[in-house]
Design brief:
Strand order of the largest sheet of chain A: 3-4-2-1-5-6-7
Mean pLDDT of chain A: 93
Number of helices of chain A: 8
Oligomer: homodimer
Distance between the termini of chain A: 51 Å
Strand content of chain A: 5-15%
Largest sheet of chain A: 7 strands, mixed
Largest interface: A-B, 65 and 65 residues
Chain lengths: 226, 226
DNA sequence: ACGTGTGAAGTCGTTCACAGCG
DNA sequence: CGCTGTGAACGACTTCACACGT
């Protein structure tokens, strides 16, 4: 099932100034709260206290309140927080109350898995194109999108108005692809290649390194053993 | 190409006591240093200063030295650090100088992509089994491993001596699978399902939520705009 | 001279405890 | 009375600056 029609980019509602200098941990936890609120809403919860929310996530009630209070007043004294309202606020702060256009580079195993991932749309993330360097894969279809040549990157970015790129190519190719993506004007990259990318400081990169997660877990086990 | 023969579990070299109460940020950065050192080694670098290493990773030289110093004395005054030596030390601290056995649950698109991911072996992470609940997928082969029924979880964990589990099942099934994994005695879980898992406190969980990464990047863009 | 290891100072984030509102 | 919002106290991580080793 293809995405909804491509959204125009343009002016959107502004953010409370507080968001500009929000501590990174606060912003990271907003995503966490949002996910948990979605799950609680599925269960039919209509009101939730900072204590309850915190218990589910391993945080103290005070911390939950501090996090929200930094961005505004979203709660109701004596009552708690109302999930629909709170979720709307969080989505607004994170900037996902408006659509974002995403392109995917790399149509290997991982790329295909990412392309077919449900759940991007629910966060207003819309996959607009899939690119690959392997000529034998061109014109194949992945979740409704024809695979395009990596050489067409500039055109594709212009046509799709993409703001985010996902890199899912082999490690050896990652930096080259990254450089091309940066040249295309994209300012945010999600990198799945097991390689640390070098980018100009105005570009945001998030590295998802699978081995790294296992490593960190191994360390935990390692400690717990003695 | 299948993994090397299953390693025995048993006693391994101990960790400096300092590692037990290491600040979590220090431990996370060890993985980062390791990845960067691998890349630098590929380029033939034989010695590196805290300044150079920090510049590559966006950290100050002081911080790099503090991080390493917490775990021991790995540097050479007037010279810098020697990558092979330093990497050996980091691998030891993280506990990846010994093999770990991993099982994968979920043989969908993402599961297959993860199973075929090169680069686990280089971190001493060895995939020993793939399980799925879909009967139609049983006995299929994924990177040399026959898919087993999820019902055989307990047996598989016992036979493979698995210490880590990767969950790559649909969101709706994730908590159920997680509970079964916990019952099997596994103490570390890497979760790719877009769902926050509830586990007993002695179990470590790491959630890799794809939408969450895009969200955080969207926030960065959102800010940079105005 | 160059670069590490390290206490001391500073900054940032978390916890606490309570005032105030529903 | 329950629960939020918030300043003040606390603790944790980072930065700084310098002594020491090569």
């Amino acid at each position: 099932m293809p995405d909804s029609p491509p959204p125009p980019s343009g002016p959107y509602a502004p953010l409370p100034n507080s968001a500009s200098h929000a501590p990174p941990p606060y912003v990271r936890r907003l995503s966490l709260y949002l996910r948990m609120l979605e799950q609680l809403t599925d269960k039919g919860v209509s009101t939730i206290s900072s204590k309850q929310l915190g218990d589910h996530l391993g945080l103290t009630d005070g911390q939950v309140r501090k996090d929200f209070a930094h961005f505004g007043q979203f709660g109701h004294p004596g009552v708690g927080y109302r999930p629909p309202e709170l979720m709307r606020q969080i989505r607004h702060i994170l900037g996902i109350d408006r659509p974002w256009n995403v392109i995917l580079i790399g149509a290997g195993n991982l790329g295909r898995a990412l392309a077919s991932h449900k759940g991007f749309a629910g966060r207003n993330m819309h996959l607009r194109a899939v690119l690959d360097s392997d000529a034998s894969r061109l014109d194949e279809e992945i979740s409704g999108l024809k695979i395009e040549s990596i050489d067409r990157l500039q055109d594709v970015v212009a046509q799709t108005q993409a703001q985010l790129a996902i890199i899912a190519v082999p490690a050896i190719a990652a930096q080259g692809v990254c450089d091309a993506v940066v040249r295309s004007g994209i300012k945010a990259i999600l990198n799945f290649a097991p390689r640390l990318l070098t980018v100009p400081c105005e570009v945001s990169v998030s590295n998802v390194d699978l081995a790294q997660y296992l490593e960190q877990l191994a360390f935990q086990l390692h400690l717990g053993e003695k």
